[in-house]
Amino acid sequence: MRAAFSGVSLLLLAACGGPGQAGGPGVPEVVAEASAAARATARIPASIADTLTIVCGKPFSQDATAGTLAELFGAADVIPETLDGPNGERRNITAIYPFDRSRRIEVTFGNEEERTLLTRVTIKGESSEWTGPGGINLGDGVASVERLNKGPFTLSGFGQPDGGYVTDWQGGVFKEIAAGCRTTVRFSLPDDVEPASAIVGVGGHSSHEPAVLAAAPYVTEISISWLEEHEY
């Protein structure tokens, strides 16, 4: 009887990978990968995980603060930063998911010291898990944005510090997506494109212009911003 029990025990140990390997070869790695995936998924709060859209409303309403954002996204993922501006000036922002390129958001507050009175939320780069208002995505071309805006728009000339921004939505959907809130979009040119001189430098250009379309600009920055009283 004892011999039979020992044999069964040996069989069970062999099936489990032997002493010290109860999970079998490779299982610890699988568990670690699953845990890492679970942590990554949990980083975006369930309340906004289905939309991942920057909107003119909670959690990005005007009364939002660094504290309210930290409650939602986690204090470790809401970090103050100082960045270089386009003309050499330094500007203070609060980064959400600062080290995750696919989820990073930049928030600006009217009161920088206390980080209260939210004024702007921005996503930028080549791609993001976040979407701008109305379905605009990083990487969208002029035609896509025209379709979402339900009409053409005006761009500032390229090749300058403030180049490629939409300066006038020409009465389209994005002129005012919510009361007191506007959408700002910036286009960049592909590295291998040499734009026509007609769209370089100071001046406004319609999204319908052949030279603009030929240059194939694409969205690299999307933001929503709350207007101050004097801007209404």
Explain what you see.
The chain is an alpha+beta fold and 232 residues long. The chain has one domain (48-231). It contains 6 helices and 9 strands, in the order ααααββββαββββαβ. The protein has a 6-stranded antiparallel beta sheet. The chain has a 3-stranded antiparallel beta sheet with strand order 6-5-8, with no helix packed on it. The chain is globular and about 50 Å long.
Strand and helix map with partners:
Elements: H1 2-15, H2 27-42, H3 46-49, H4 66-73, E1 78-84, E2 90-96, E3 105-111, E4 116-124, H5 142-149, E5 154-156, E6 166-168, E7 181-188, E8 204-206, H6 210-215, E9 218-226
Antiparallel strand pairs: 1-2, 2-3, 3-4, 4-9, 5-6, 5-8, 7-9
Mean pLDDT: 81
Q: pLDDT below 50 for ≥5 consecutive residues: which ranges?
A: 1-42
Tell me the quaternary state. single chain
Helical percentage = 10-25%
Q: Give the DSSP E fraction (strand runs of 2 or more residues).
A: 15-25%
Gap between N and C termini, in Å? 90 Å
Q: Largest sheet, if any?
A: 6 strands, antiparallel
Count up the helices: 6
Number of strands: 9
Sequence of secondary-structure elements? HHHHEEEEHEEEEHE
**Basic shape:** globular
